Structures are given as structure tokens and as C-alpha cells.
Amino acid sequence: xxxxxxGATGFVxxxxxxxxxxxxxxxxxxxxxxxxxxxxxxxxxDLVTGDLLQPENLRSAxxxxxxxxxxxxxxxxxxxxxxxxxxxxxxxxxxLLRLARETGVGRVVYTSSVATMGFLSDGTVVDEQTPVxxxxxxxHYKRSKFLAEQxxxxxxxxxxxxxxxxxxxxxxxxxAKPTPTGRIVVDFxxxxxxxxxxxxxxxxxxxxxxAMHVAALDRGTSGERYILGxxxxxxxxxxxxxxxxxxxxxxxxQVPHAVAMTFAFFDEWITGRIxxxxxxxxxxxxxxxxxxxFASSAKAxxxxxxxxxxxxxxxxxxxxxxxxxxxxxAS
Length: 331
What we know:
The radius of gyration is 19 Å and the shape is globular. Helix 5 crosses helix 11 and helix 8 runs antiparallel to helix 9. Strands 3-2-1-4-5-6-10 form a 7-stranded parallel β-sheet, sandwiched between helices. It is built from 11 helices and 12 strands. The relative contact order is 0.14. Helix 1 links the parallel strand 1 and strand 2. It is an alpha/beta fold. The chain starts with a strand and ends in a 7-residue tail after the last helix.
């Protein structure tokens, strides 16, 4: 099977590329001119230079493929100009779906996010059927992914074969950017986590997420969403686990959301607006933190053969990789 894959130079996408390659797929990988490609070393694939902001230039590369796996996204919790995020995440997705239809690509797997689910502040475990709307989306990243997912579902309803995957919070090795979740690990390892807020995440091994992209091509039902998750953990539980693995102290002081919001407001204003750098904390991130993002993967287990595994091994892999690559002091 010949597959056109976007996002292969990113954290999740590089693992997806390896999983597809191991399954015998013939790969065409979208890369930008500025992309780092060291994660792709040793992978037999054709590299295609392009950009989601100029999708028409990708027509010839998509043509002749049996499937499109769209993992790429602008994943940031703070952007100076959100228009670029919507252009990449929403319009880019819409255009790729159109190109797949026009060039006869038979299957599409779209990597959305658990961020599009309807989370609550009381820690209720949600699933694909939990009611949700655009009004529930906090921040430009979540709104853009919600709108992009709507484009994928609309295409499926019109007859295009599109399967939607909703990873929770992937963790593991090779998070080079790093992602916002990876920054939690890096900050902890560098002892820059003096306190915590009352929030929660569902952590999942990135390799489990990658493997399901292979399964979704054959077993996924068009127009359906599948949450790919691991363990539901509070932030404090995550920090405690890392403390047990590393011997570093876990913070004991819990900060009220109001205090965190005040810090984020000034950090975003001074660091982001005045200095032009990405702030360590953002107002939208604190607002999101009021909701515990606990989710169930029962549907993926039932339909795709997904298996929820403990996240400790992936968390340890992330710690070891960050230390080995200079993001934090060696143990």
C-alpha cells in the first residue's frame, strides 16, 4: 500500500511513519523546507517538500497513493497570530481531503485530538458520545482541531472513506520540539516545577497511538471517531510517578487556579506580547486546566483491537530520551 503521510517529522507522526513502514507500506512523507528529518533516518521513504498552507502543490505527490494519513497540525497553546493556525489545521485539512477525493485516494485516516471532546471540571470520564460543541473549545488550538474534525466528518458523510483518531496526551521518546506535555517532563527534570494545579490528563504511550494508525486503515469505520488513550492521572500523580522514577522531589504545594491565572496573564503579556517569546504559562492553558481531561478508549478497544497499557514505560522512555539529548541533566 502506498501512503501519503503528513506530520512525519513531528513527535506522533515520526512514530506513525515507523509503524506504517514496519507494516510494509510504501511511504511518501510530507516535509517542510525547515523540517528536521533526523527522526526519519533508516526509514525507507520518499520525502516530499511542501506545506499545508500551499496544498495544491501536493497534488502530484498525493496522486497514485492508496491512502492519506494526515497527522500534521500546528500544535501550540500560544500563537502571536492565530490565523496561521486555522489556515494549517482547518483549511489545510479541508484541502487535503479534497485532493484525496480528486486524485482517487481510497482511504483517509485523520489524526484529530482528544481536545475535541466535551470535558467537565469534575473529572467525569468522557467518550466519543459525550455532548460537545464549539462553545466548549478553549483556545485556538482546540477550536481549530474541532473545526478540522468537522471537515473530516462532513467528508465522510458525503461518502469519502475517512476514519478519525483522537489520541489523548502522547508521551514517549523523541519528543524533540518538545510538545506541551513533553515540557512538563522537561521542566520537572530541570526542577522548574515548584507547584502544581488541580488538573488531570490521560497519558498514552505514543507507540500505542502509532500502531493504531495501521489498524485504522483496515478496521476503522468511516465517519467514526476513536479515542486512543492510556491512564487517567491527575497532574500530581504524574509528578509523583516521575519523582519515583528519578529520585527528584515532587512538588507539594498546590496553587489555586486564580493564582495560576494571574501568573499566566502577566507571563503571557510580558513574555509573549512585549518580549515576543513563547510564555511558560498562558491564560488559555490555565483555563483548560480547570477541566480534567479523563477519557475512555472502550470504543477503540472494541472496534480496532486497541489495548490500553500502563504509561510508566513510555514516561520512563521520555525521561531517558530528554536526558540523553541534553534537555535536562543526566541522572
